[in-house]
Amino acid sequence: MSKNAAVSSLPQYDDRFIETAAGWYALVRENSDLGPFISRFEAEQALERHLRLYRGVNHRPRGEAFHGIGVHDTASCRKANCGRCIEARALNHGLLAVY
Ligand SMILES: [Zn+2]
Fold it and tell me: Is residue 3 part of a domain?
């Protein structure tokens, strides 16, 4: 059983969580992803707070970050705190843990 097999309290948002060398991130549509956190649980709690805060406020369409695995262009990314950029940088530097 993988370490990610735990039942999430936010199963409908499963594709919003990524684990990087820096920690867990919750990906959001706003300018700053949430993280890094030391556990997925903390990232989920942060996303729950974030969703409560932004419910009914943000009506922008879902971005490319929510179509599963895809290419993320770190050179053109405008996020101030981006989990996917952190992950890409870690991959470039070989910092990912070996599973
Ligand atoms: Zn990015």
Answer: no
Q: What's the 32 CA to ligand 1 centre distance in angstroms?
A: 9
Query: Cα(16) to centroid of ligand 1, in Å?
Result: 13
Position 71 scores a pLDDT of 74
Q: Judge whether 19 lies within some domain.
A: yes
**Would 1 be classed as within a structural domain?**
no
Give mean pLDDT in consecutive 10-residue pieces for the chain, a chain of 99 residues.
Answer: 54 87 93 96 95 77 54 90 90 63
The phi and psi torsions of 43 (rounded to 5 degrees) equal -65, -40
Residue 46: inside a domain: yes
Helix, strand, coil percent content, the chain, rounded in steps of 5: 35, 15, 50
